[in-house]
Amino acid sequence: MAADDLLTLKAAAEQYSVTYDRLRRAAWDGRLPTEGTGHARLVRSEHVETFLREGRVVPGREAPPPKRTAPPLGKIIAVALLKGGTGKTTSTLNLGVALGQRGYRVLLVDTDHQCSLTSAAGLNPAELAPEQTLFGAIQLWTTQLREDLHNVIQTSPAGVDIVPASIRLSLTERALHLQNRREYVLQSILAPVAPQYDIVLIDTQPASSNLVHNALVAAHEVIIPVEPEQLAVESLGLMLDQIDEVRRSRLNPHLKLCGVLVTQVDVRMTLHRDLLSEIREQFSSDLPVFNTVIRRSSKIAESQARHQSVLQYDPKGSGATAYRALAEEISREWE
Ligand SMILES: Nc1ncnc2c1ncn2[C@@H]1O[C@H](COP(=O)(O)OP(=O)(O)OP(=O)(O)O)[C@@H](O)[C@H]1O
Ligand SMILES: [Mg+2]
Protein backbone atom coordinates (compact mmCIF):
# COMPACT_ATOMS: atom_id res chain seq x y z
CA MET A 1 0.00 0.00 0.00
CA ALA A 2 1.35 3.45 -0.86
CA ALA A 3 2.66 5.53 2.04
CA ASP A 4 0.46 8.44 0.93
CA ASP A 5 -2.61 6.40 1.98
CA LEU A 6 -1.60 7.24 5.53
CA LEU A 7 -3.17 10.36 7.02
CA THR A 8 -3.00 12.09 10.35
CA LEU A 9 -6.31 12.04 12.22
CA LYS A 10 -6.68 15.78 11.63
CA ALA A 11 -6.06 15.45 7.88
CA ALA A 12 -8.50 12.52 7.66
CA ALA A 13 -11.15 14.54 9.50
CA GLU A 14 -10.73 17.36 6.99
CA GLN A 15 -10.64 15.07 3.95
CA TYR A 16 -13.80 13.20 4.95
CA SER A 17 -15.59 16.24 6.47
CA VAL A 18 -16.10 14.64 9.86
CA THR A 19 -15.08 15.94 13.27
CA TYR A 20 -11.60 15.21 14.54
CA ASP A 21 -13.12 14.06 17.84
CA ARG A 22 -15.19 11.37 16.12
CA LEU A 23 -12.08 9.84 14.54
CA ARG A 24 -10.02 10.29 17.70
CA ARG A 25 -12.60 8.47 19.81
CA ALA A 26 -12.82 5.64 17.27
CA ALA A 27 -9.03 5.38 17.22
CA TRP A 28 -9.00 5.39 21.00
CA ASP A 29 -11.54 2.59 21.48
CA GLY A 30 -10.18 0.42 18.66
CA ARG A 31 -12.91 0.84 16.03
CA LEU A 32 -10.42 2.60 13.76
CA PRO A 33 -6.94 1.01 13.53
CA THR A 34 -3.99 3.39 13.74
CA GLU A 35 -0.30 3.19 13.03
CA GLY A 36 2.32 5.04 15.07
CA THR A 37 1.59 6.47 18.50
CA GLY A 38 0.37 9.59 20.31
CA HIS A 39 0.18 12.65 18.13
CA ALA A 40 1.99 10.77 15.37
CA ARG A 41 -0.96 8.36 15.03
CA LEU A 42 -1.81 7.78 11.38
CA VAL A 43 -4.81 6.15 9.75
CA ARG A 44 -5.24 4.53 6.36
CA SER A 45 -7.80 6.21 4.14
CA GLU A 46 -9.45 2.90 3.28
CA HIS A 47 -9.92 2.20 7.00
CA VAL A 48 -11.48 5.64 7.51
CA GLU A 49 -13.90 4.96 4.65
CA THR A 50 -14.86 1.55 6.09
CA PHE A 51 -15.28 3.05 9.55
CA LEU A 52 -17.54 5.83 8.24
CA ARG A 53 -19.61 3.30 6.26
CA GLU A 54 -19.86 0.47 8.81
CA GLY A 55 -19.03 2.02 12.20
CA ARG A 56 -15.89 -0.10 12.57
CA VAL A 57 -13.23 -1.62 10.39
CA VAL A 58 -13.72 -5.09 8.86
CA PRO A 59 -13.05 -8.22 10.94
CA GLY A 60 -9.43 -9.21 10.82
CA ARG A 61 -8.40 -5.58 11.06
CA GLU A 62 -10.10 -4.96 14.39
CA ALA A 63 -8.09 -3.89 17.39
CA PRO A 64 -6.99 -6.85 19.52
CA PRO A 65 -9.49 -7.77 22.23
CA PRO A 66 -8.80 -6.44 25.71
CA LYS A 67 -6.21 -8.58 27.44
CA ARG A 68 -8.31 -9.10 30.55
CA THR A 69 -11.76 -10.56 30.58
CA ALA A 70 -12.34 -10.25 34.34
CA PRO A 71 -14.35 -7.20 35.46
CA PRO A 72 -12.08 -4.19 35.90
CA LEU A 73 -10.75 -3.67 39.40
CA GLY A 74 -11.26 0.10 39.18
CA LYS A 75 -8.59 0.67 41.81
CA ILE A 76 -7.30 4.24 42.13
CA ILE A 77 -3.81 4.69 43.55
CA ALA A 78 -2.23 8.10 44.20
CA VAL A 79 1.56 8.33 44.12
CA ALA A 80 2.39 11.10 46.56
CA LEU A 81 4.98 12.78 48.76
CA LEU A 82 5.34 16.47 49.53
CA LYS A 83 9.08 16.41 48.84
CA GLY A 84 10.17 16.93 45.25
CA GLY A 85 12.30 14.65 43.11
CA THR A 86 11.74 11.41 45.03
CA GLY A 87 10.60 9.35 42.06
CA LYS A 88 6.83 9.90 42.02
CA THR A 89 6.60 10.47 38.29
CA THR A 90 9.18 7.82 37.41
CA SER A 91 7.37 5.27 39.56
CA THR A 92 3.91 6.19 38.26
CA LEU A 93 4.98 5.70 34.65
CA ASN A 94 7.09 2.57 35.08
CA LEU A 95 4.75 0.85 37.51
CA GLY A 96 1.87 1.68 35.16
CA VAL A 97 3.66 0.23 32.15
CA ALA A 98 4.73 -2.85 34.15
CA LEU A 99 1.13 -3.43 35.29
CA GLY A 100 0.00 -2.95 31.68
CA GLN A 101 2.45 -5.64 30.60
CA ARG A 102 0.89 -7.98 33.17
CA GLY A 103 -2.42 -7.52 31.35
CA TYR A 104 -4.01 -4.88 33.56
CA ARG A 105 -5.91 -2.02 31.99
CA VAL A 106 -4.05 1.04 33.23
CA LEU A 107 -4.88 4.74 33.19
CA LEU A 108 -2.30 7.31 34.28
CA VAL A 109 -3.44 10.73 35.48
CA ASP A 110 -1.00 13.65 35.49
CA THR A 111 -2.09 16.16 38.14
CA ASP A 112 1.17 18.10 38.14
CA HIS A 113 1.43 21.28 36.08
CA GLN A 114 5.13 20.47 35.54
CA CYS A 115 3.69 17.82 33.14
CA SER A 116 6.62 15.47 33.80
CA LEU A 117 4.44 12.37 33.54
CA THR A 118 2.81 13.57 30.32
CA SER A 119 6.16 14.14 28.64
CA ALA A 120 7.82 11.05 30.17
CA ALA A 121 4.99 9.02 28.62
CA GLY A 122 5.89 10.46 25.22
CA LEU A 123 3.35 13.26 24.72
CA ASN A 124 4.26 16.87 24.15
CA PRO A 125 2.20 18.99 26.59
CA ALA A 126 2.80 22.12 24.48
CA GLU A 127 0.96 20.50 21.56
CA LEU A 128 -2.16 19.73 23.54
CA ALA A 129 -5.19 21.98 23.35
CA PRO A 130 -6.54 22.95 26.80
CA GLU A 131 -9.61 20.72 26.33
CA GLN A 132 -7.34 17.72 25.73
CA THR A 133 -5.88 17.96 29.23
CA LEU A 134 -6.89 17.61 32.86
CA PHE A 135 -7.10 21.41 32.98
CA GLY A 136 -9.93 21.32 30.42
CA ALA A 137 -11.72 18.55 32.31
CA ILE A 138 -11.50 20.46 35.60
CA GLN A 139 -12.66 23.64 33.91
CA LEU A 140 -15.66 21.82 32.46
CA TRP A 141 -16.53 20.63 35.94
CA THR A 142 -16.00 23.93 37.75
CA THR A 143 -17.92 25.97 35.16
CA GLN A 144 -20.65 23.55 34.03
CA LEU A 145 -20.57 20.65 36.53
CA ARG A 146 -20.02 18.33 33.58
CA GLU A 147 -17.41 15.60 33.39
CA ASP A 148 -16.01 14.30 30.12
CA LEU A 149 -12.67 12.57 30.46
CA HIS A 150 -13.35 10.32 27.47
CA ASN A 151 -12.34 13.17 25.18
CA VAL A 152 -9.18 13.81 27.16
CA ILE A 153 -7.79 10.30 27.57
CA GLN A 154 -5.11 9.39 25.05
CA THR A 155 -3.13 6.23 24.47
CA SER A 156 0.40 7.37 25.16
CA PRO A 157 3.46 6.22 23.22
CA ALA A 158 4.43 4.43 26.46
CA GLY A 159 1.53 2.09 25.71
CA VAL A 160 -0.84 2.98 28.53
CA ASP A 161 -3.71 5.45 28.57
CA ILE A 162 -3.16 8.84 30.12
CA VAL A 163 -5.02 11.96 31.19
CA PRO A 164 -2.33 14.50 30.25
CA ALA A 165 -1.48 17.71 32.08
CA SER A 166 -0.47 21.11 30.79
CA ILE A 167 1.10 24.14 32.38
CA ARG A 168 -2.41 25.62 32.60
CA LEU A 169 -3.15 23.18 35.38
CA SER A 170 -1.48 25.71 37.69
CA LEU A 171 -4.47 28.00 37.00
CA THR A 172 -6.90 25.53 38.52
CA GLU A 173 -5.63 26.06 42.08
CA ARG A 174 -7.60 29.29 42.44
CA ALA A 175 -10.66 27.93 40.65
CA LEU A 176 -10.65 24.90 42.93
CA HIS A 177 -10.27 27.12 45.97
CA LEU A 178 -13.52 28.88 45.12
CA GLN A 179 -15.31 25.66 44.22
CA ASN A 180 -17.99 24.11 46.38
CA ARG A 181 -16.85 20.68 47.63
CA ARG A 182 -13.49 21.44 46.08
CA GLU A 183 -11.84 18.26 47.38
CA TYR A 184 -14.17 16.07 45.35
CA VAL A 185 -13.62 17.47 41.85
CA LEU A 186 -11.10 14.85 40.68
CA GLN A 187 -13.18 12.06 42.22
CA SER A 188 -16.24 13.30 40.30
CA ILE A 189 -14.34 13.60 37.02
CA LEU A 190 -12.80 10.13 37.35
CA ALA A 191 -16.00 8.40 38.45
CA PRO A 192 -17.33 7.56 34.93
CA VAL A 193 -13.99 6.30 33.55
CA ALA A 194 -12.24 4.58 36.48
CA PRO A 195 -14.56 1.53 36.34
CA GLN A 196 -13.29 0.83 32.81
CA TYR A 197 -9.74 0.33 34.09
CA ASP A 198 -8.12 -2.07 36.51
CA ILE A 199 -5.74 0.53 37.86
CA VAL A 200 -5.74 4.30 37.78
CA LEU A 201 -2.40 5.75 38.91
CA ILE A 202 -2.38 9.44 39.83
CA ASP A 203 0.92 11.31 39.78
CA THR A 204 0.92 14.28 42.16
CA GLN A 205 2.79 17.52 42.75
CA PRO A 206 5.32 17.91 45.56
CA ALA A 207 3.01 20.37 47.34
CA SER A 208 0.19 20.58 49.80
CA SER A 209 -2.22 21.87 47.16
CA ASN A 210 -5.88 21.47 46.33
CA LEU A 211 -4.91 19.09 43.52
CA VAL A 212 -2.94 16.83 45.86
CA HIS A 213 -5.88 16.86 48.28
CA ASN A 214 -8.15 15.95 45.36
CA ALA A 215 -5.88 13.02 44.50
CA LEU A 216 -5.94 11.75 48.09
CA VAL A 217 -9.72 12.03 48.20
CA ALA A 218 -10.19 10.28 44.83
CA ALA A 219 -7.77 7.45 45.66
CA HIS A 220 -8.38 4.11 47.34
CA GLU A 221 -4.70 3.72 48.15
CA VAL A 222 -1.45 5.69 48.25
CA ILE A 223 2.08 4.74 47.24
CA ILE A 224 4.78 6.90 48.84
CA PRO A 225 8.11 6.90 47.01
CA VAL A 226 10.98 8.02 49.25
CA GLU A 227 14.67 8.40 48.67
CA PRO A 228 16.87 7.08 51.45
CA GLU A 229 17.79 10.61 52.58
CA GLN A 230 17.03 12.26 55.90
CA LEU A 231 14.76 14.92 54.38
CA ALA A 232 12.76 12.35 52.45
CA VAL A 233 12.37 10.21 55.55
CA GLU A 234 11.09 13.27 57.46
CA SER A 235 8.65 14.08 54.68
CA LEU A 236 7.42 10.49 54.86
CA GLY A 237 6.25 11.30 58.39
CA LEU A 238 4.47 14.43 57.10
CA MET A 239 2.81 12.45 54.32
CA LEU A 240 1.55 9.88 56.79
CA ASP A 241 0.07 12.73 58.85
CA GLN A 242 -1.63 14.07 55.74
CA ILE A 243 -3.16 10.67 54.94
CA ASP A 244 -4.32 10.42 58.52
CA GLU A 245 -5.92 13.87 58.31
CA VAL A 246 -7.77 12.94 55.10
CA ARG A 247 -9.12 9.86 56.87
CA ARG A 248 -10.05 11.58 60.14
CA SER A 249 -11.71 14.53 58.41
CA ARG A 250 -13.94 11.93 56.71
CA LEU A 251 -12.94 13.31 53.30
CA ASN A 252 -11.81 9.77 52.49
CA PRO A 253 -12.18 7.62 55.60
CA HIS A 254 -11.02 4.40 53.89
CA LEU A 255 -7.84 5.73 52.28
CA LYS A 256 -5.26 2.96 52.59
CA LEU A 257 -1.49 3.03 52.40
CA CYS A 258 -0.52 0.65 49.62
CA GLY A 259 3.13 0.91 50.54
CA VAL A 260 6.31 2.93 50.91
CA LEU A 261 8.60 2.52 47.93
CA VAL A 262 12.27 3.20 48.54
CA THR A 263 13.74 4.64 45.34
CA GLN A 264 17.07 5.87 43.99
CA VAL A 265 18.97 3.60 46.35
CA ASP A 266 22.71 3.49 45.95
CA VAL A 267 23.58 0.31 47.78
CA ARG A 268 27.27 1.24 47.85
CA MET A 269 26.66 4.21 50.16
CA THR A 270 26.66 3.56 53.89
CA LEU A 271 24.30 6.48 54.53
CA HIS A 272 21.77 4.93 52.19
CA ARG A 273 22.14 1.55 53.84
CA ASP A 274 21.66 3.10 57.31
CA LEU A 275 18.59 5.08 56.28
CA LEU A 276 17.10 2.12 54.51
CA SER A 277 17.31 0.05 57.67
CA GLU A 278 16.12 3.05 59.71
CA ILE A 279 13.00 3.31 57.52
CA ARG A 280 12.41 -0.40 57.95
CA GLU A 281 13.02 -0.28 61.72
CA GLN A 282 11.10 2.91 62.35
CA PHE A 283 8.09 2.12 60.27
CA SER A 284 7.83 -1.49 59.21
CA SER A 285 5.86 -2.60 62.23
CA ASP A 286 3.18 -0.03 61.36
CA LEU A 287 3.80 0.56 57.74
CA PRO A 288 3.89 -1.56 54.62
CA VAL A 289 7.30 -1.03 52.97
CA PHE A 290 7.65 -2.77 49.61
CA ASN A 291 10.27 -5.49 49.50
CA THR A 292 11.12 -4.22 46.04
CA VAL A 293 13.62 -1.38 46.16
CA ILE A 294 14.38 0.80 43.14
CA ARG A 295 18.10 1.31 42.78
CA ARG A 296 19.64 4.44 41.34
CA SER A 297 20.22 3.76 37.67
CA SER A 298 21.39 6.02 34.88
CA LYS A 299 19.09 4.12 32.49
CA ILE A 300 16.05 5.25 34.50
CA ALA A 301 17.12 8.91 34.28
CA GLU A 302 17.96 8.52 30.58
CA SER A 303 14.64 6.84 29.79
CA GLN A 304 12.76 9.78 31.29
CA ALA A 305 14.85 12.23 29.28
CA ARG A 306 14.04 10.21 26.13
CA HIS A 307 10.30 10.26 26.97
CA GLN A 308 10.10 6.49 27.34
CA SER A 309 9.44 4.08 30.16
CA VAL A 310 12.53 2.22 31.32
CA LEU A 311 10.70 -0.97 30.36
CA GLN A 312 10.82 0.24 26.77
CA TYR A 313 14.22 1.95 26.88
CA ASP A 314 16.18 -0.76 28.69
CA PRO A 315 13.85 -3.74 29.04
CA LYS A 316 16.48 -6.14 30.37
CA GLY A 317 18.16 -3.72 32.78
CA SER A 318 17.87 -3.53 36.56
CA GLY A 319 15.40 -0.60 36.49
CA ALA A 320 12.89 -2.44 34.29
CA THR A 321 13.37 -5.61 36.33
CA ALA A 322 12.70 -3.71 39.57
CA TYR A 323 9.50 -2.08 38.30
CA ARG A 324 8.28 -5.45 37.00
CA ALA A 325 8.99 -6.91 40.45
CA LEU A 326 7.05 -4.05 42.05
CA ALA A 327 4.09 -4.68 39.73
CA GLU A 328 4.21 -8.35 40.70
CA GLU A 329 4.42 -7.51 44.41
CA ILE A 330 1.51 -5.06 44.25
CA SER A 331 -0.73 -7.21 42.08
CA ARG A 332 -0.14 -10.40 44.10
CA GLU A 333 -3.12 -9.63 46.30
CA TRP A 334 -5.42 -9.23 43.30
CA GLU A 335 -4.37 -12.37 41.43
N1 LIG B 1 15.92 5.07 40.30
C1 LIG B 1 16.39 6.17 39.71
N2 LIG B 1 17.68 6.23 39.30
C2 LIG B 1 18.17 7.35 38.72
N3 LIG B 1 17.46 8.47 38.50
C3 LIG B 1 16.17 8.48 38.89
C4 LIG B 1 15.57 7.34 39.51
N4 LIG B 1 14.28 7.64 39.78
C5 LIG B 1 14.09 8.91 39.37
N5 LIG B 1 15.22 9.41 38.83
C6 LIG B 1 15.43 10.74 38.27
O1 LIG B 1 15.30 11.68 39.34
C7 LIG B 1 14.61 12.84 38.90
C8 LIG B 1 13.35 13.01 39.76
O2 LIG B 1 12.49 11.89 39.52
P1 LIG B 1 10.93 12.10 39.36
O3 LIG B 1 10.64 13.16 38.36
O4 LIG B 1 10.32 10.79 39.18
O5 LIG B 1 10.61 12.65 40.83
P2 LIG B 1 9.27 13.34 41.33
O6 LIG B 1 9.09 12.91 42.75
O7 LIG B 1 8.16 13.07 40.42
O8 LIG B 1 9.67 14.87 41.24
P3 LIG B 1 8.66 16.11 41.45
O9 LIG B 1 8.39 16.15 42.92
O10 LIG B 1 9.45 17.30 40.98
O11 LIG B 1 7.43 15.86 40.66
C9 LIG B 1 14.32 12.63 37.44
O12 LIG B 1 15.31 13.26 36.67
C10 LIG B 1 14.39 11.11 37.25
O13 LIG B 1 14.81 10.74 35.95
MG1 LIG C 1 6.90 14.42 39.40
Task: Report the bound ligands by name, code or SMILES.
Answer: adenosine-5'-triphosphate, magnesium ion
Per DSSP, the total helix count is 14
Low-confidence stretches: 60-65
Biggest sheet features? 7 strands, mixed
Approximate shape: globular
Radius of gyration over all CA atoms, rounded: 20 Å
Mean pLDDT over the full residue set? 87
- CATH homologous superfamily annotation of the largest domain: P-loop containing nucleotide triphosphate hydrolases
Named CATH architecture of the largest domain: 3-Layer(aba) Sandwich
Portion in helices: 40-55%
Strand order in space, largest sheet:
5-6-4-7-3-8-9
Give the CATH level 1 class of the largest domain: Alpha Beta
What's the CATH topology label of the largest domain? Rossmann fold
- What is the end-to-end distance? 43 Å
N-to-C series of helices and strands:
EHHEHEHEHHEEHHEHEHEHHHH
- Approximately what portion of the residues adopt beta-strand conformation? 5-15%
Structural class: alpha/beta
Can you count the beta strands? 9
Explained architecture:
- With 335 residues, the protein is α/β, with parallel strands linked by helices.
- It folds into 2 domains: 3-54; 75-334, 3-Layer(aba) Sandwich (Rossmann fold), CATH 3.40.50.300.
- The chain is built from 14 helices and 9 strands.
- Bound molecules: adenosine-5'-triphosphate (ATP) and magnesium ion.
